[in-house]
Every structure is written in structure tokens, then in C-alpha cells.
Design a protein that fits this description.
63% helix
Amino acid sequence: MTCPCRNKPAEEVATDAKRDRYVSFIGLECDAKAATLMQRIRAYIDDPQHSNVFWEYFKKKAAGGSGPRPDPLFLIHSNLNQIRELFEDKGDEDALRLLDNIEEECC
């Protein structure tokens, strides 16, 4: 007996592949989303009133000051909890939604 879930029409499989990170990152725009999120992070942490020792380290790491320069997506993935806490503290719901989207689709 053949399972119908294994026999999707070709056009449905192609559509799924454009959105499913486990098949392909095509159509997810992960690099653009990560760049946008990094701008949101920097808007807070570049202000000395909102920075701290961790965020100063984060900025140094983002610039490649502690080894090879990581791409924004890797840096976000490596610091999800700290970034989430920053946006929660600032009440930035739009940035939190973008972070959730990046975490679900790109990390």
C-alpha cells in the first residue's frame, strides 16, 4: 500500500522545497533577515546607556575582533537567548517576531 503523503504532486513538492529549511534555504531570505535583525540589535547596543560588557564583547566578535568574523546568522544563532532578553527588556515586539522567524526558519 502506498502512503498518499509520500506521493505529493510535483508542484506541491517544489513549493514546499522553497519554504522548508530542511529541504533548502531557497525563499527564506535568511541572510537578509539576519542583517535586519543585526541592525535592530545595534540600534540598542551602540547606545552606551543600553550596552554592557556582554554587548561590547558581542560587537567585538561581530567585527572579527576575537577570531574569524562570523556571519550575522551564525552570530544570532549563537546568542539567541541574550538577543531575546535584549528585545524583551526593550519591549520590541517586532524584533522578537523577526527573531522567532529566524530561529524557526534559518537556525
